[in-house]
Amino acid sequence: MAAAVVLPAALSKAEMATAMPESGGTYLYIDRALGPLFGTIAGIGAWFSLVFKSSFALVGLGAYLLLFAPISQGAVVYVALALAVLVVALNVSGTKMSGQIQAVIVTLVVAGLLAYVVNAGFVADAGRYAPFTTHGGSGIITAAAFVFVSYAGVTKIASVAEEVKDPGKNLPRAMLGSMAIMTLLYIGVVGAIIGLSDPEVLKTGGPGGTASLTPMADGAGALLGGAGVLFISVIAVVALTSMANAGVLSSSRFPLAMSRDDLLPSSLQTIDARFKTPRNAVLLTGVVLLLLIAFVPVIELAKLASAFQILVFSFENMALVAFRVADVPSYEPEFKAPGYPFVQVFGFVAGIALLTQMGTVPILGAVGIILGSALVYVAYGRPRTDRTGAIGTILRARRGEEDDGIAATEPE
């Protein structure tokens, strides 16, 4: 269900990425389509969302680390902080190195997850799949909203589009290919977890009787005994570190792109003379990452990341509609999203419907980020920019006015 809601945004983003292969991704497309106010909200929101996800990954890996490393529960946060510093240093040192390490890690993790799923098929308890629901349809919808953040990675590549070779071909392939692969893999992993694990352990096996924080390891003993738990725990730690690295790599490009458009201070445009990376943007992202790890509970991090990711993906669908309706000459994508506009309308409506199932705290968090971002725009960005985006072109055309001459895919 989560994948079905993500797919329209992935298609829309793949099209817009081929028209605007620049750093900034989500921010860039929404800004050029809906104007700088929505661009500021989307840019800051998407940045926070990915930093939330990276924080969630680094804190979450601590629960798996406890299964095989001789450390105390209290030391988990310090381990996560140390890994965060390492990830930030890696991203300052260069995209090429970060990308090469990421490619090796992801390959190993995917192979490990496939082995987990395939072997689970031979020993899983079929009786654990019935009944299909225990809390009705609303429970499934809430779960889909909660795991939505898992798919944030399928479009992260757009954030570093200007660093990608042959973006017209490689960006859609990367986004839609990873979407297909990860959807099947995620479904397989969840199916394996349910078939291998005692449901009571999943529900109450965490700290203080809360939900388990190590669901993959809970049933891994049925595969390979103690060795299975160790194997899966190592895979989980490596995977979550990888997720954090990818999050910092992509999220740091949002402040960079926004500063180029005068929506954030120009110091965030600074490119490191030695490593050719946006040093200040990465360091700012790293500081927020460390603060979240130190002070925000892990489950709330996941909820906040999912809530704003849903909202941002919904905006992306509307951004594509704005570009198509405005028919801006400078908007010339090499890839065209199929099913327009029905796919985009479905993605927007379904996203908002999922958002309503997230609970009070995530929704209030999303509202807080929206209001804070709007304040940043009014106080800093508005006096420095006068572009209106594709939506402005549409409104002027309906009023019979001439266009302002600012291409919707370029800053003034």
TrEMBL record:
GO CC terms, sorted: plasma membrane
Organism encoding this protein: Halorubrum aidingense JCM 13560
Cellular compartment(s): Cell membrane
Gene Ontology MF annotations: transmembrane transporter activity
Key word Transferase present: no
Domain of life per record: Archaea
Descriptive protein name: Amino acid transport protein
PANTHER family in the cross-refs: AMINO ACID TRANSPORTER-RELATED, INNER MEMBRANE TRANSPORT PROTEIN YBAT
